[in-house]
L-fuconate dehydratase (Actinospica durhamensis), 448 residues
Amino acid sequence: MSVARARIHALDTYDIRFPTSREHDGSDAMNPDPDYSAAYVVLRADGLDAAGRPLAGHGFAFTIGRGNEVQVAAIEALRAHVLGRDVDELCADPGSVSRALIGDSQLRWLGPEKGVMQMAIGAVVNAVWDLAGKRAGKPVWQLLADAEPEWLVGQIDFRYIADALTPDEALALLRAGREGAAERAALLREHGYPAYTTSPGWLGYSDEKLTRLAKQAVADGFTQIKLKVGADLSDDVRRFRAARAAVGPDLRIAVDANQRWNVPEAIEWVNALSEFEPYWIEEPTSPDDILGHAAVRRGVAPVKVATGEHVQNRIVFKQLLQAGAIDILQIDSARVAGVNENLAILLLAAKFGVPVCPHAGGVGLCELVQHLSMFDYVALTGTTEDRVIEYVDHLHEHFVDPVRMGAGAYLAPEAPGFSARMHDASIATYRYPDGTFWVEDLRQHEGV
């Protein structure tokens, strides 16, 4: 008698929004009033996980409020590619669902491989990796680090990047990365992965709050902080002076313009801040402007140029690297098409010798991207030199397996999966527009 195979039987989506704009959390020169949000997806499967819970994979795309419903609709459009899929086959080859979603010829027209559909694919693909980690009983960083190099290469789409990275080159990098991996995994579990914090630097914060949080960052063991800049130069000078006074002359301070400037303006503005020794300038101009970033890099040296949180696919990253346009590559766990594409980007960065310092400001982005950097350290580049993961200190309480920090470092996740599962109570409270918080918020505003 044959045993029925476990299959994906439901794809559930949720529009989750948090009112972060009311305290100016996440505010910057381009986005002054973000309500951090998640277009959230749960793949529900037959059977139970290792903890005896109904088996499910969780993922999301990050947005900042209005339009989150559009992102949810994009995820819904992928339903037919996932329902009924065999769980064992899916977990054995997450690349199969990545290829199916990217390869839908009609949905591809809405990209290709960019924008809302790309982020929707990333949410579903990441949910598959969450499911695979749970099935294997491993956190995703360990699942990746333990994987055979040949299998990892098979997870990557080399179309459009083979002129910069061939499968054979990727395989050689991964084989070399396995040397000493067990020792590095032990060091990771003991010491964690270096982090920097943006929490003091949101543009809407007062100078007093900036100073207080910058001093707290030093006390918490961080060796780098980041300030948002780009709205008003005199304000930036004043805030940078306050931050430097708070942290001292040696701690690194990066700055982030969130795409605010034209190229000549970026060069002029960053040079005007040079007396405070900014470590890098992040997103100085449009994320699509490869030659613009190269010009900024030449014009602001020795200040480093960083970008990536809005870079939409591996092809643009390839060109940034080929053009020598960046010093720091910033992957985002939910902007591109999930783990598989981020593997390609990590390998591109490794080949070009450019350090990866991920973006992680937003709902759950810290939880996800830590796994990718930890894999990079343990089983690819073997180093954390000049590498840090961004950390922000809000909204972690909504996750079942939140990030854990110690002495300015991310501690390695231990729970199986991708750390993506939100508490049911948080979903019920912040689901938009019918969650209990938003229903009460509307009632109060109508009563005014």
Notes: The mean pLDDT is 96.
